[in-house]
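Sequence in, structure out. Go.
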Amino acid sequence: MATLIEEPYKTHPTVEHRFFPYSQNGGTVVAVSGEDFAVIGCDTRLSEGYSILSRDVTKVRKMTSKTLLGCVGFHGDVLTLTKTLEARMKQYKHTHGKDMSCEALARCCPQNLYYRRFFPYWYTIS
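Output:
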């Protein structure tokens, strides 16, 4: 008759892997406005953790002759946002025959946030 020798089960620690598609690339954008002026400033450093990826990345983009957009956060989402807004501005210009106003561009930003509510952008606008 054969006997079955049981070995205790070896337990391995459970390793949990989580997918996090974003990287906080850091940055600072500061804006001050008055009755007849506005000033916006930013740093030019793109970093991830303790690593500096670039020292020449601007976080302020000129959208129209009177509108600037300052964004920080995940750099890929910032680039996607600016490309999306530029496409919307071209559509607006072809439809209405004039450049998009600052107020219209400000209304366009929350719409983009709403469209991406299930997989949102990772950025901050000033």
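Check: The chain has a mean pLDDT of 84. The first strand starts at residue 29 and ends at 33.
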